[in-house]
Amino acid sequence: MVELAREASYEVSARDGEAIKKAGARLTPGTRISVTWMPADNDDDRVSAARQLRDAGLEPVPHIAARMLKDEHHLDRLLGRLSAEAGVGQLLVISGDVKQAVGPFESSSDLIASSAFRKPMLHTIWVGGYPEGHPTIDDETLRAVLDRKIATIGELGMTPGVITQFCFDAEPILQWMKAFRERHDGVAVRVGLAGPAGIRTLLRYAAICGVGASAKALITRGASIARLLSEAAPDPVIRDLAETPTYGELQPVGFHLFPFGGLDRTVRWMEVVAAGRFKLHSSASGFQVLE
Predict the structure, then answer these.
(1) Predicted TM-score of the model (pTM)
(2) Signal peptide location in the record (predicted)?
(3) Cα-flanking dihedrals φ and ψ of residue 64, to 5°?
């Protein structure tokens, strides 16, 4: 658990310069920080955030949203700026949460196939994984599309990786990971976790992102119920994954934190875990951090 906490990656919004500044002061140099793609942000915001992360000694991993790109030239220009101005070598490609594409790209697969991705500095491309499924895509299609993306990235001479949707229960993660490892032995997976936040906030994001099934775990972990009435942290999932008998077979695996309660709050919480300052619950459900 200490090792997983030390190697965790995080997310930040492009305009949250103060959060980036605080993260740079606390996190280990080289820690991966994804820069989310929000419709209200522009390319200057995205490049600026990536450059600030780089200057802080962190590794920027900007999101590139397919359906929000105007055309091939827009993609080529943005990737060129990210590489030249912020030394970006890693990207997370997503479809983008809009029904109608503004340009020719309908999916992250379209992005990966674009000639714009043949940038010399690009070496790692992350794609999304869905342990709890997708609200509009069946599981068989999800698996096939993910496999094709990984194969294409490898054919381009780059390293593929997967960052999953956030989950509140280890069981769907373990089932998904077992099936994934049968197909992809050495591809890195970052399991998405929601950072510590209020229950209402977490349930709201769970509904938006389609992870309602595991969200039930927020209110059914017996030993934690009193604490969860006000807020929740990802300690049950961290402990369950770390203690699973097949943990060694899941490698390489790490955690990716979605900081719905704020990046600084999430980083501080994980910092305590990384220092080993926590006490296991006797119920075998999570642990208590000793701040």
Answers:
(1) 0.92
(2) none
(3) -125, 115
